[in-house]
Amino acid sequence: MYLAIICLYLAASVLGQRPGNVIAENAVSMPMQTCTKGGCTLENTKVVLDANWRWIHTNSGYTNCYNGNQWDPKYCPDGKKCVQNCVLEGADYQKTYGISSPSSGSLKLNFVTNTPNGKTVGSRVYLLAPNNNYRTFNLLNREFSFDVDVSNLPCGLNGALYFSQMDADGGMSKHSGNKAGAKYGTGYCDAQCPQDIKFINGEANVNNWNRNSGFGNYGSCCPEMDIWEANSDSTAYTPHPCRTLGQSRCSGNSQCGAGNSRYNNVCDRDGCDFNPYRLGNQNFFGPGKQVDTRRPFTVVTQFVTSNGQDNGQLKEIRRLYVQNGKVVQNVKTNIKGVSATNVISDAYCKNVKSAFGDRNYFGEVGGMGRMGQALKSMVLVLSVWDDHVAGMKWLDSRYPDNGLPSKAGVMRGRCSPSSGDPNTLESQSPGSSVTYSNIKQFGTMGSTYKS
């Protein structure tokens, strides 16, 4: 996922991997529940801001190490010297980043937050355990549920809740240059192998840094399970397996899968998505539809194994919703040439990729079996973002741009292709937001929601 930052604390979007002492780090409380058929128990978890959003300055003063979308060569002539010269600060979550907890167990992420020093656009946070490591999840033979309110999230924006196979300590034990760890939101990775991560494997991503795009030579790769990508008009859930497990660093556009090298990547950047609108169901999700996005609802995702046991292979990923006390089963596919189904499986992915004329890279990197191996240890990520690369058209509009609307799979939602323009969104819809609440972690299937 590509996350754009217009201006951060002290008018700079900067970060580092050693903690500073200017701003106190006070992660936002967001307790979750672990459930079985016998009931649920509370965990005192918090959310911590990603390092990419934080202010970094020299360890001997307040000079920015990164400013105007470029590294200061005096302090960051190379990746290793940069971590020696620069520190990563704590965060004022609400005032600088628009991150708040309106009530116990809820998290509100504002799209644009104005500060005396500029504005912050979007945010990304991780669930943090009491020991200051990321709270990790084994999703096999479990279900995961949460409540969400997307009523204030228009076309072109994405309120995302997903899992990435990050290191629990943020990579601190593996990389000597990382002294901040999970407490300061380090170690991010996903299946896009993002090259906009400014510190990877304990080094600054200085080499070949492109000031215009905000991309460096390195990318940070790992398996990703997109539980929820949505706005008020469209939604999708998508597994992204990789040939490798855990976080790894790629080097160069070709190895990281940028541009025309998409299928050189160790990870499946496309994924195998289930988007009701794209699958021929235009009246299932949205304002006033079967899942009515004008009001909050519960999202339940179940990870079904081949033998119904924890040691089984991932067979299916199922989805259902609960709204106004009523369970709404996921809608079935309505595409010519695709057998009607409402679950993600290897057969579904093969059939739908064929129907859409897409390469089944999902199957090539190992499909559901490979995804299931990654699901044994995942970190929860929550975010809100706009898309400076594709205007979010892959989620809620026509994509690719030259695709015929009549061709199966091209229409992802009813939004205008121009609705995702970041400049328009940031100027005309700055007050947009998404609210997550009631995060519950599984146990027995059917234990995290009420019908």
Automatic annotation (TrEMBL):
It holds the Pfam family Glyco_hydro_7. Residues 406-451 are annotated as: Disordered. Residues 1-16 form the signal peptide. InterPro entries: ConA-like_dom_sf (IPR013320), Glyco_hydro_7 (IPR001722), Glyco_hydro_7_sf (IPR037019). GO terms for molecular function: cellulase activity; cellulose 1,4-beta-cellobiosidase activity. Its EC number is 3.2.1.-. The keyword Zinc does not apply. It comes from the Eukaryota. It catalyses: Hydrolysis of (1->4)-beta-D-glucosidic linkages in cellulose and cellotetraose, releasing cellobiose from the non-reducing ends of the chains; Endohydrolysis of (1->4)-beta-D-glucosidic linkages in cellulose, lichenin and cereal beta-D-glucans. One of its GO terms (biological process) is cellulose catabolic process. Keywords: Carbohydrate metabolism, Cellulose degradation, Glycoprotein, Glycosidase, Hydrolase, Polysaccharide degradation, Signal. Residues 416-451 have a biased composition (Polar residues). Belongs to the glycosyl hydrolase 7 (cellulase C) family. This is Glucanase. It comes from Thyridium curvatum.
